[in-house]
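Researcher: Quick one. two chains, 476 residues in total.
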Amino acid sequence: MGKKDQQLHSRIKKDIIEKIESGYYRPGRLLPTEAEFCRIYEVSRTTIRTALQHLIMEGHIYRKQGKGTFVAKGKIKQTLSSSSLRYNDQLRAQSREPGIKVNECLETRADAKTAEKLGVEEGEPLYLVKRTRLADNEEIQYEIAYVRKDLVPELTEDSVKQSLYDTITANGHQLNRTEEQLKIVISDEEVSTHLNISAGAPCFQISTITFIGSEQAVEYSEAYFRGDRVEFVIEREY
Amino acid sequence: MGKKDQQLHSRIKKDIIEKIESGYYRPGRLLPTEAEFCRIYEVSRTTIRTALQHLIMEGHIYRKQGKGTFVAKGKIKQTLSSSSLRYNDQLRAQSREPGIKVNECLETRADAKTAEKLGVEEGEPLYLVKRTRLADNEEIQYEIAYVRKDLVPELTEDSVKQSLYDTITANGHQLNRTEEQLKIVISDEEVSTHLNISAGAPCFQISTITFIGSEQAVEYSEAYFRGDRVEFVIEREY
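Model:
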């Protein structure tokens, strides 16, 4: 694709974003078809396709099989700076209904990577917990967590369906602090299947190590957030 | 591409990441060619290409024109939770040399979007400042900032080359707080050109509104960070 085409699809993308932000195209509204957009902007199908593809990846619009392309609702906001607001409370504050599915909850042993993250020996018994979080029945977060079994012997599918942090404190620990890293990753099949997106779509990944009062790492997790549906909010005071 | 192929390229991607993390492939090292990887893993060129493409997008490896594919150095870390560490200090703490280029510094007027963000009328005089930040001479952040000219009349290319926040305080204001939103965006030509990446590569976008003591919004900015070179660090206390 030539330089000129690239500039065109970006200009069309910006124009559609402006029309969404100004309310000309409202959330939930059916957008023109590709052919109609070609006529509106007097450009090729390839140019329109690229513009729409980028708008889909960024979550401004979405496609429904056999129905067309629609304007997306606002993104789910997740506050990063505060430790106080739990997932459920954050969602309810945005008038969205939180949900959770436990995909797996089983015993495993630490491999090289989890051993290093948790500061234990390889082969140490761990719980492996995989969960999907929903907002208004839409999958938005998929999380793979490893929990030290020696520190948290009492962990069940029921307890992690409620709260993993409550499960840890119910085992007699006080949460002290977390160290988190936020990256962009390209979703693989496991992540894309659980988030109901195309494999290869960009996602946020937050890796977290949770420390208890004794400064021992009790949990290591990797959470994947839909890049097209989630944005993070940070508030800083000076 | 079939289901089987997809699972294969993800497994190869994971294997290469493990070999990088374990030190088998060290930072800066030339990796096998596509043809060699095909033989190593006994898979098709398409499968290898997809695995390498995802590894490049995530920043584990990078390609040098005509030289091959290399293992990337660790990502640049940016602390999100702290307000105290400036860009330059954060970089120096990672033994990286910070740099800044002023791409544009001119007077403009508020359009609908910036007027809404800054809480002013459309047409209000603003400064438009575009800057690129570097780490060890590599472009990692491109920032477009709008500053209210009535509040910050004294703003020059020289002053924003030093620090935009210092420029604001030198005009007699106290910084109070910021509201930031972090999203994944697909880079357009302007962003990709300044960050020296392919158009269409996923980037972080942080949009910031900066408030001064009077609770007036003095600045609105959109900063783009290379998704393959930057990760954010968050620390939370409980």
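Residues 3-21 of chain B form the longest helix (19 residues).
Researcher: Thanks, that's what I needed.
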